[in-house]
Design a protein that fits this description.
By secondary structure, the protein is an alpha/beta fold. It is built from 6 helices and 9 strands; from the N terminus they run E-E-E-E-H-E-H-H-E-H-E-E-H-E-H.
Length: about 260
């Protein structure tokens, strides 16, 4: 099933939406749509967008923050499509619940996010890749980017399979902050796969992020140096890594774009 250019709502747990500051990326020249993806035991929703009339565009998997597949993530997908990507954001939370039913971030984490097995997430992203490649995306170029909770999934996916590039917009790197000691649901965290990444990864973190202390990121950075893949961590002096602007970030982002569009190594 495909629903063309259908907008999504914002998750109540994000807080009040400010109409004056909300960004809405238009659909001119791109083809956005809500789709259903066969993920084995069930179908999952996804929001996809690609340049109109173009085939074989580099495939970019967009992994949401804690609020799931809502309008902000759909807007990000449209932005990437405007830059030449076949971008798709799958709903990775649907088996355990719906983030739209939560108005409190604490309950959203404890009652939903901490019940989603990492292995299930990896399978569903694989199914998303299969769907996209069967619907016009590149068979060769594949990358992933994720935000906050999706940033953690981005690191794990970069260790799960070979990618051309990955960008993690923050994301918890160890299990000490909030994760239960449940090796069935969460057998490994990003720090555990630092030396076995299968893709070059750019990690963007805030130097004053209280949820992910700088010393934790510094330790993770040292672990990354033991692997064979290029991994760059960039820091800002703000509470979160939402607006990185360091020269290292610009250079690494440029290299990622070149690699994905076939104009670089």
């Amino acid at each position: 099933m495909t629903q063309h250019d259908q907008s999504l709502e914002y998750s109540p747990a994000t807080g009040p939406v400010q109409a004056t500051t909300t960004i809405h990326t238009n659909s001119d020249g791109i083809e956005p749509k809500l789709v259903m993806i066969d993920a084995g035991d069930r179908s999952i929703r996804a929001y996809a967008a690609s340049p109109a009339g173009e085939e074989d565009c580099p495939l970019l998997i967009v992994l949401s923050e804690a609020f799931g597949l809502h309008e902000h993530i759909a807007d990000i997908v449209r932005r990437f499509a405007h830059h030449g990507y076949f971008a798709v954001a799958p709903d990775l939370m649907v088996r355990q619940g719906d983030p739209m039913g939560f108005d409190d971030i604490g309950r959203l984490v404890s009652d939903l996010l901490l019940k989603i097995p990492d292995e299930q997430v990896m399978r569903d992203i694989d199914a998303t890749v299969t769907w996209a490649r069967g619907n016009g995306a590149s068979q060769k170029k594949l990358a992933a980017t994720g935000y906050c909770w999706g940033g953690r999934w981005t690191w794990l996916y970069a260790a799960h399979r070979p990618l051309d590039a990955a960008v993690a917009w923050y994301g918890i790197v160890d299990g000490t902050a909030m994760f239960p000691h449940d090796t069935t649901l969460f057998p490994k965290h990003p720090r555990d796969v630092a030396a076995s990444l299968k893709a070059p990864v750019l990690g963007l973190y805030g130097g004053q992020d209280e949820a992910i202390p700088l010393e934790t990121i510094r330790a993770f950075e040292a672990q990354l140096q033991t692997g064979s893949q290029q991994a760059v961590l960039s820091f800002t002096s703000i509470p979160t890594g939402r607006t990185p602007s360091l020269p290292t970030t610009a250079k690494a982002t440029g290299l990622t774009s070149l690699r994905m569009h076939g104009r670089g190594a």
